[in-house]
Write a structure and sequence with these properties.
Length: 320
């Protein structure tokens, strides 16, 4: 940033600056006459995030950008001619919260802290305009916070939801199942597990293609979700396998639930994106109830062993 020739602070120049609108130029000019005018070259940093700032910068020409994490990060907003930069850090004496970078060669009028407060004390219009600028900055900051929270919520959602089926995914399962098992153990309530596998799904894919296979997967997931109890939780375990947690459910009740699932899936009609009917699919289900205080791996191993017996027993059946 280099000092450049002083710009004549005419009425027209001052009235283009937001904080001077509605003021008397003749009154403002003596206080501004000693303020340096500086040129900021394109890509040069005017304000660095995390560093102290004791100046208010008035953009007389050019354009500045505001960037959060670094001077190279994407701009979140722009400062146009007549607007200011640095007012927040000047007032609260905290380090600058963002980087202000020249988008093009720009000229700024630099006011030190004492000059800013003299202007505020001298002119009600300056005080009002500065307050208006601060409110706009705060409202914009609030909007950024809201947008960030919405993005975080979306990221969290996508981090735990399987994109194809809309069910919870393996990551969610790894986090939730240990908690539910611990809760069941502490409350001495039963908890059962179902592992569901679509029978001969590889052959279905080989015969009809992966697009139709995805339709069958989504349809099976939807049927499972619509058939289980509201408090039960279904997740995609991997490939064509699903794992269903049944809180407060004994082995007998889990067997009945598994049989309802098997019948519901075998009666589901699937169509592909062209509206053509697809062959029905069947499922095999392994059932296990949590006994004593097993590990997650032990409970899943029991359900998986039951599923293996169902597959060896001819498929389209339920085993414990």
């Amino acid at each position: 940033m280099t000092v450049c020739d002083a710009i004549e602070l005419t009425d027209d120049v001052l009235q283009k600056v937001d904080i001077f609108r509605g003021t008397c130029a003749d009154i403002m000019r003596p206080l501004l006459s000693g303020a340096p005018t500086k040129e900021v070259r394109k890509d040069e940093i005017l304000l660095a995030g995390g560093r102290s700032n004791r100046q208010l910068f008035l953009l007389l020409s050019g354009r500045l950008s505001v960037r959060l994490s670094s001077a190279e990060s994407a701009p979140i907003t722009f400062i146009e001619e007549g607007q200011t930069a640095g007012e927040l850090s000047l007032i609260d004496h905290q380090p600058a919260s963002a980087f202000v970078v020249a988008e093009q060669d720009s000229v700024v009028l630099c006011l030190d802290e004492d000059t800013v407060w003299e202007l505020v004390n001298m002119s009600h219009a300056v005080a009002s305009n500065l307050l208006h600028t601060l409110v706009k900055r705060m409202r914009y900051g609030n909007n950024i916070i809201v947008e960030d929270r919405e993005k975080i919520a979306q990221f969290q959602y996508h981090a735990t939801i399987d994109a194809l089926t809309g069910m919870f995914n393996r990551r969610w399962l790894n986090s939730m199942l240990p908690r539910l098992m611990h809760r069941a153990h502490m409350s001495k309530q039963p908890l059962s597990l179902l592992i569901v596998d679509i029978d001969q799904f590889k052959q279905f894919n080989d015969m009809h293609g992966h697009v139709d296979g995805d339709c069958a997967l989504r349809g099976t997931a939807t049927t499972i979700t619509n058939t289980i109890r509201p408090g039960d939780m279904a997740s995609r375990y991997g490939g064509e396998e699903f794992l269903i947690i049944l809180p407060d459910c004994s082995l007998d009740s889990a067997l009945a639930a598994a049989e309802r699932l098997r019948e519901a899936v075998s009666g589901t009609v699937f169509t592909n994106p062209d509206g053509e009917l697809l062959p029905p699919v069947t499922i095999s289900v392994g059932v296990a109830e949590m006994a004593n205080d097993p590990t997650v791996e032990e409970l899943i191993k029991d359900a998986d062993a039951a599923l293996y017996r169902a597959k060896k027993g001819g498929r389209n059946c339920v085993c414990v």
